[in-house]
Amino acid sequence: MAAALLGYMSSVARRDPVVREASVPFLPPGSAPVRVLIASDFHVDEPDMPPSRLAGIVQQMNALEPDLILLAGDYMSEEARSEQHYTAAQAVAPLGALRAPLGVIAVPGNNDHGVGIAPFAPAFARAGITWLRNGHVRRGGLWIVGVDDRYSHHDDWTAAFAGIPETDEVIVLTHGPDLIPRLPPRAQIVAAGHTHCGQVVFPLIGALSYESNYGDRYDCGHLKENGRDIFIGAGLGTSMAPLRLGAVPDMWLVTLTPKPE
Hints:
The chain is α/β, with parallel strands linked by helices.
């Protein structure tokens, strides 16, 4: 029985990610909709997320034809369980095939800091991906604010927001959701990961942990809090063990629509 359960959990961890969809009124009246694809927690590692599997997921992402792609950290794993470790360059390389008219933007996660953050900037530069650590960019009329990882104490949202007009609403991309209560009200959309939606969620018992100081407040999915839309992905890879139960791999396709006039 135990072996069968472990085999099932291993197969769930290797499934193609589910694409979850939502629509958020965010753009000025009369604007054309913008499709934003959010993915997190890649954890490129053996046995469940070799670069070849990530390359296949990238094809799935491109097939959705997003206008903008946001990557919310943890491209590698810092754990000893790995059957084969990869370099930052090897982990990031498949992401270089991502295509979106407004570009691809990435922020670090706690595991990326754990393995050593320095190689990621050149790796993302080679992949043609914008790498944000407490900074921001303007894409298609949208402010994208990238805040570094709070879990590993590298976040500085005030620096990330510096220079953006006070009246402008923004999209915040960060790894972990524990940053959310600190953000100003104009952070109207937040994209994050880190929780893995529990990764292993037992019937009746629930998840053993969401790795958050707020418990299950920011556990998973499309959440709304104080008028803010929050997207917490289950991630693509795994942490601690290459197993999933009750929390399949996923990514979010969020369509930004015009606000009513």
